[in-house]
Amino acid sequence: SPEQCSRAVAVQRRVDCHPQPGATQENCEARGCTWCTTDVPNAPWCFFPEDSPYGYSLGGNAEKTAKGWRVTLNKRSQLSLFGNDISPVVVDVEFQTKDRLRFKIYDPNTERFEVPLKIDSPGVAVISIYLQITTTVPSTSVYGFGEHEHVSFKHNMDFVTYGMFSRDQAPTPFANLYGVHPFYMCVEDDSNAHGVLLLNSNAQDVSLSPNPSLTFRTIGGILDFYVFLGPTPENVVQQYTEAIGRPHMPAYWSLGFQLSRWGYGSIDVLKETVNRMHRYDIPYDVQHLDIDYMERRLDFTYDKENFAGLPEYLQELKKAGMHNIIILDPFISKDEEPGTYRPYDLGEEMGIWVNNSDGVTPAVGQAWPPGNAVFPDYTNPRTVEWWNQLCLEFKNVLDYDGIWIDMNEPSNFLQGQFPGCADNDINNPPYIPSISDRSLAEKTLCPDSKTYLGEHYNTHSLFGWSQTAPTFHAVQQATGKRAFVLSRSTFVSSGKHGGHWLGDNFSQWKDMHYSIIGMLEFNLFGMPYIGADICGFNYNTTYELCLRWMQLGSFYPFSRNHNEQDPAFFGEEFAKISRATLRIRYSLLPYLYTLFFESHVHGNTVVRSLMHEFTSDQQTRGIDTAFLWGPAFMVAPVLEEASTAIKKHHHTGIK
Ligand SMILES: *[C@@H]1O[C@H](CO)[C@@H](O)[C@H](O)[C@H]1NC(C)=O
Ligand SMILES: *[C@@H]1O[C@H](CO)[C@@H](O)[C@H](O)[C@H]1NC(C)=O
Ligand SMILES: *[C@@H]1O[C@H](CO)[C@@H](O)[C@H](O)[C@H]1NC(C)=O
């Protein structure tokens, strides 16, 4: 009503009381919330009143614990937004190091899923810092949260919601993509920065509103917040990676230029491509093999017809000083003749698949291999053994130096496994966060499937993460060298064992710009070995776009072209320019390698925003069309069609 609206909280301070679609005045007021329409775009019309009956109040005094305080909270009323509210809940505040604070909000009476990531807590009592956190008014300079295609590095705070739930999804703004990183950094107006991790793997979303405020919603686990106190942006990332694990140290060769393509189709085309690269003398160190090297897309095989002689050819490449990466998928065909496909037979014998809700029959879905497929459950130690064994054996077939793990969201081409998901509260919870299709089963397995660590509902977004460390160790063991693992799905701390590419990007000018944002974000997430597919992946590229992308991509930490148009495709002039830009990269490799060392030892970013070095200069807060390698080298690429220079007025503000 009008008088309700006039007394209502100001638009910019509204917190959505009906985050699921379909809010009406009736169902809003029925939950005790206020309904006021507004023409402010995306602002909620149904929101919590100032004296909200929801929420919790303090029950009794804070109790001192070994490393901080414990308080108990009780629900204020019987009202419930999503049902099954827990009361009381306990809040533990722990001073973990002098730069790190943990708030853990949990149910004292029932055990709930917790992310199995061990964060050491030496524990110190520095009470004054707590006061600082609670009194600080954050600014609107908020960065991070992933994985999404963000159109700016500095977030728009005008009622924007991002869902997080790993998904096989080509990058589109606002969609939840392959990985999950519930971490953000905020740079306050006085230039002090802090970072916050919500250590939670369930489907979740976060709303950014102009107050400025952030609202976290997750549908499982516990609310486990870690606060990193900075004060500089670099300090925040150092403190974050101290907690979750420092990035791995990549091999020097993996900083060289890399080539890949989906659809070489035959070893002859592969050889032609490699020869053409050499003929044009384009710096080039690593060759990737996408799924078409496999026999009928079966893991741990190669196509003995179209790729006859591949084992010998890979050895030849290695003798010439190159390195080879092979792709592996996390699904195993169950429909080969019994006794002919060892990966399935051995896995079946070992009982390593993700199971249906009964906990004993394997979940069967459909993916790249012909027939139907089962999904190795990498949270199970037996699966790790199986995978390790097969990776070691396969090294004797194809002489690889690293493994690229794809489709590990995990991707399934159906909605849930056969015969579809049961209608229950786990598969259809009362609130589904703001994720694509508002479905937890779309393109993946049913949430009530069973993994070793618990329900897929809890472990879904940990699938790629749980595959990364075992693959890293297998590669290390197989090669006896520093491991190379590239993973599509990632989670908090994946950077310890792998790198990432920004997914199946589109060959479009704006995507080229967004790749800088993605690269800056993954550096905040502790995954500095990062890059996008140079020239894009989907859609046809053009000469000019691909050329500009080669120039930008020469400065991705992970520099790989994964397009039908490789740098030798467009002829002499294109090759000449690619050679020149890559030679700049190569001349700077000792510097890049040193930055990775700093990152591995101290947790620094490798690629960083200008804001990290010039924090007090307010202009740098919004720059995402240029970036720095470490503190000392700036790259400001041409990102627009038909232009040959970077002008001032160009949103960078840089001359
Ligand atoms: C899945 O089922 C197999 C038997 O088929 C069993 O050996 C295994 O322990 C089960 N795993 C999980 C996580 O339920
Ligand atoms: C590609 O996708 C990633 C997310 O996977 C996104 O961050 C990035 O901006 C996209 N664009 C490019 C060109 O990489
Ligand atoms: C890409 O190029 C090929 C060959 O030139 C053409 O057949 C195809 O239609 C193009 N695809 C798109 C999406 O433009």
Automatic annotation (TrEMBL):
Entry's EC annotation: 3.2.1.20
Cellular component, GO annotation: membrane
Class in the EC hierarchy, top level: hydrolase
Catalytic activity: Hydrolysis of terminal, non-reducing (1->4)-linked alpha-D-glucose residues with release of alpha-D-glucose
Highest rank taxon of the organism: Eukaryota
Zinc recorded as keyword: no
Position of the signal peptide: none
GO molecular function: alpha-1,4-glucosidase activity; carbohydrate binding
Compartments in which it is found: Membrane
Main location: membrane
Domain annotation P-type: ranges: 3-50
Metal-binding found in the keyword field: no
Family matches, as InterPro entries: Gal_mutarotase_sf_dom (IPR011013), GH (IPR017853), Glyco_hydro_31_AS (IPR030458), Glyco_hydro_31_C (IPR048395), Glyco_hydro_31_CS (IPR030459), Glyco_hydro_31_N_dom (IPR025887), Glyco_hydro_31_TIM (IPR000322), Glyco_hydro_b (IPR013780)
Record keywords, A-Z: Disulfide bond, Glycoprotein, Glycosidase, Hydrolase, Membrane, Signal
One record GO biological process: carbohydrate metabolic process
Family per record: Belongs to the glycosyl hydrolase 31 family.
Name recorded for this polypeptide: alpha-glucosidase
Species, as recorded: Anser brachyrhynchus
